[in-house]
């Protein structure tokens, strides 16, 4: 599986993400030319080589009407939704969502990319609305609404459209710490809009004082990342470094790795507990509720416990995203006082479902393949319905239909 891994150990901003993706592109020069021809009003994009802590990478410069965005207080890029101080006097355009829609509609890019750009702006608008208590349509973008930020977001969306990774994984996001000064006053890092966007995403502050993750960077990660966590086992083919503008004791960059992962192997969690004081009906109900709560599988095993008491080992298998909610559910639906957690590598066959028409009705067939073998199985409910209607056993109904 073609997988993109994004290392957010120094946060993320729009220009840094675009710069790192550009290094992964097979024809970066041609892509810059394309970006300069998609009808972004007054926008000129160029790239340059930059070095941070001995690491060489790319930094993308965006000029609007011949004026380059200078270094902001957060040190990354121009992708921020608050009015920061600048060393030049150019006024920033304040735009509503409707203004953004008008700009994006006129761009010479695929419709799917336009949709991605607008979806990302919607994420930012909803965050600004929540942070400042305004309706979404009343939100006016400050720096996020300027053409240089539109270029960043559009560039990232178009690069991902052309690179076409099948899966995107991002590391936990380092937000920075301290405070940031903006049009609303001095705010904590991460800024309120950024914090809202990052809800549900693993983050940490770290020891660097300053804003490392901007609202634009957070929105791009939230929209495109399929999951957040450690780098998977992968055969890396390309590495890209997107450089920020400010220097820290650590290399101020986003690193991306593009390569192949095994699509048939994933990490799953086994959540286990021993129980000796619940009835079979109570355990059965708990298992049903855990499955309805998102578990991949739930099963029980008879075990012998201390003092010779018979008991039950309950095992719940789930993905990373469901681990916390299912742990809570186990405590809620069982009498256990503790849950053990194990990380396992799960190998699965590729699966698909199709429906076949028979003289006796539709039957869903589950087909599987991989690891040098293949199989198929008819859906129980469909076979059982036909067996009941024809007063047949399940075995006889399968034989009648010619299915396994």
Automatic annotation (TrEMBL):
It catalyses: Ni(II)-pyridinium-3,5-bisthiocarboxylate mononucleotide = pyridinium-3,5-bisthiocarboxylate mononucleotide + Ni(2+). Its EC number is 4.99.1.12. Residues 82-92 have a biased composition (Basic and acidic residues). It comes from the Bacteria. Residues 71-92 are annotated as: Disordered. One of its GO terms (molecular function) is nickel cation binding. Keywords: Lyase, Nickel. NCBIfam families: nickel pincer cofactor biosynthesis protein LarC. Involved in the biosynthesis of a nickel-pincer cofactor ((SCS)Ni(II) pincer complex). Binds Ni(2+), and functions in nickel delivery to pyridinium-3,5-bisthiocarboxylic acid mononucleotide (P2TMN), to form the mature cofactor. Is thus probably required for the activation of nickel-pincer cofactor-dependent enzymes. Belongs to the LarC family. This is Pyridinium-3,5-bisthiocarboxylic acid mononucleotide nickel insertion protein. It comes from Candidatus Ornithomonoglobus intestinigallinarum. The gene is larC.
């Amino acid at each position: 599986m073609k997988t993109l891994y994004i290392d957010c150990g120094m946060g993320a901003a729009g220009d840094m993400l675009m710069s790192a993706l550009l290094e992964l592109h097979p024809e970066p020069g041609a892509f810059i030319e394309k970006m300069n021809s998609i009808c972004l009003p007054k926008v000129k994009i160029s790239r340059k080589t930059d070095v941070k802590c001995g690491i060489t990478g790319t930094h993308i410069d965006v000029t609007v009407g011949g004026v380059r965005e200078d270094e902001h207080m957060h040190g990354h890029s121009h992708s921020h939704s608050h009015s920061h101080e600048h060393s030049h006097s150019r006024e920033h355009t304040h735009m509503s969502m409707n203004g953004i829609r008008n700009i994006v509609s006129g761009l010479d890019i695929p419709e799917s990319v336009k949709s991605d750009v607008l979806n990302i702006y919607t994420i930012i608008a909803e965050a600004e609305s929540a942070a400042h208590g305004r309706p979404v349509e009343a939100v006016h973008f400050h720096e996020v609404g300027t053409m240089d930020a539109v270029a960043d977001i559009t560039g990232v969306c178009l690069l991902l459209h052309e690179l076409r990774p099948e899966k995107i994984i991002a590391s936990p996001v380092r937000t920075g710490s301290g405070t940031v000064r903006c049009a609303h006053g001095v705010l904590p890092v991460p800024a309120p809009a950024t914090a809202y966007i990052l809800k549900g995403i693993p983050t940490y502050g770290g020891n660097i004082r300053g804003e490392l993750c901007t609202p634009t960077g957070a929105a791009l990660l939230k929209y495109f990342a399929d999951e957040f966590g450690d780098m998977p086992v992968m055969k890396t083919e390309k590495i890209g470094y997107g450089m920020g503008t400010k220097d820290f004791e650590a290399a101020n960059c986003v690193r991306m790795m593009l390569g192949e992962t095994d699509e048939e192997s994933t990490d799953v969690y086994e959540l286990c507990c021993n129980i000796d004081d619940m009835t079979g009906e109570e355990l059965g109900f708990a298992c049903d509720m855990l499955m309805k709560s998102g578990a991949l599988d739930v099963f029980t095993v008879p075990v012998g416990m201390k003092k010779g008491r018979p008991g039950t080992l309950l095992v719940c298998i789930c993905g990373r995203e469901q681990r916390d909610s299912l742990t809570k559910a186990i405590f809620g639906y069982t009498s256990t006082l503790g849950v053990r957690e194990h990380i396992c590598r799960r190998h699965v066959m590729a699966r698909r479902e199709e429906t076949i028409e028979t003289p006796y009705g539709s039957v869903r067939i589950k087909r599987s393949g991989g690891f040098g073998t293949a199989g198929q199985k008819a859906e129980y409910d469909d076979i059982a319905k036909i067996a009941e209607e024809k007063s047949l056993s399940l075995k006889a109904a399968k034989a009648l239909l010619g299915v396994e």
